[in-house]
Each structure stands twice: as C-alpha cells, then as structure tokens.
Amino acid sequence: MGVTRIVPDLPVADVARAGETYRRLFDLEVGMDLGWVANLGPADAPAVQLQVMATDASAHSRPTLSIGMATAAEVDEVHDRAVAAGLEIVHPLTDEPWGVHRFFFRDHDGNVVKVVAHR
Length: 119
What we know:
- It contains 2 helices and 8 strands, in the order βαββββαβββ.
- The radius of gyration is 14 Å and the shape is globular.
- Strands 2-3-4-1-5-8-7-6 form an 8-stranded mixed beta sheet.
- It has helices at about 15-25, 70-85, and strands at about 5-10, 30-35, 35-40, 50-55, 65-70, 90-95, 100-105, 110-119.
- It has one domain (about 5-119): Roll (2,3-Dihydroxybiphenyl 1,2-Dioxygenase, domain 1), CATH 3.10.180.
- Pfam families: Glyoxalase.
C-alpha cells in the first residue's frame, strides 16, 4: 500500500492569516491555497507539511489528519477496510472538483481522518 504523506490538519478561523503566520515564523512556502484550506512546507523538505483549515468545501466534518495514498484504488481499499472494521464513514468516497478522490472516517477516539489521493 502506498501511503505518500501524513499531514496534520490544523483547525483555524482564518486560513489566510494562519498561512501567513506559519509562513513567516518558519520560512515555509505555500504549496496550495484554496481559500478554505492551505498547505505549507519548507522548500527543501517537501515531505514536511502542515495544512491549515477553516472548514471543508464539501464535507460536514473537518479532518484532524490527512493520509495521502498513491492511487485512488488504494483510497477505495482503505475505505473497504474502514467499513469492515465498523468505523463510521463521515464523508463518503468522493471525486472532488479540485482533483482528489477521498473519504473521511471517525476513529475509535473520535478523530476524523481524511484518506485522499490526487487523480
């Protein structure tokens, strides 16, 4: 299975303000900014990432962790495992207009985890 990244999703009230704060404090670059979520990291260490998120554009739940997979098929496989484990699916398998395939589940401690792959 190809896990490509594991990224914390920091809940914030203002994505632009939070992104600017973390960018300046830690000399990070903004890799992606959709207005409601931004991804930051150092230029010389692309595996190190932080996401700041005010809300989610299409899901009712905001994840606390994003786990990136190499392929959409692997996202589907993890989805099947989560269902088989009896975990609550809080956002169904979805192909999002911004180019990702994803779903969210709630773990046994109440954390919402996003599993995602770029399409």
